[in-house]
Design a protein that fits this description.
mainly alpha, 7 helices, about 150 residues, flat
Length: about 150
């Protein structure tokens, strides 16, 4: 099943695993990702290592549905990232997971971090996406006035 977020530049996001994965299959797939990351560390640059790490995190989030592990790996990729816009993309993935878990404290922390990144020079697209996430957070904490201001 796919969900189309209107703010994701035409991309569709999967909302569930493509199949029922066994623990053994999950472990095997994670080992494959780890091998690709190690190969990227040996043969390629930092950007390719980060991209492989992101692929691993996205797979764990979407297919294995292991949010704590996925968040940890997304945060590794965040640390490997240089620019504010890429860091915000990674935080948006974490925010989506925290929305699914309804973890308001983590949402507040990551939205605050994104606000700082906007000031550090994120592009207009990321600023607009942040307004949406911040508005959703405001609705969850029942601050409808702030949410309406953000959505207008």
């Amino acid at each position: 099943q796919k969900m189309n977020f209107g703010f994701s530049s035409g991309k569709t996001k999967k909302t569930g695993p493509s199949k029922k994965w066994t623990e053994r299959e999950i472990e095997q797939k994670i080992k494959e990702f780890d091998k690709r990351i190690e190969e990227a560390k040996e043969r390629e640059g930092d950007v390719e290592v980060r991209d492989c790490t992101l692929d691993k995190a996205e797979w764990i989030k979407d297919e294995a549905r292991d949010f704590p592990l996925a968040e940890r790996i997304f945060r590794e990729a965040y640390e490997q990232s240089g620019g504010a816009s890429k860091k915000m993309e990674i935080l948006f993935e974490i925010i989506l997971m925290n929305l699914e878990k309804n973890d308001l404290d983590a949402l507040k922390k990551d939205v605050t971090t994104c606000k700082q990144l906007v000031e550090d020079g994120a592009d207009w697209d990321k600023r607009n996406k942040l307004k949406i996430f911040e508005g959703v957070y405001c609705m969850l904490i029942r601050d409808f006035k702030s949410a309406s201001d953000l959505f207008l």
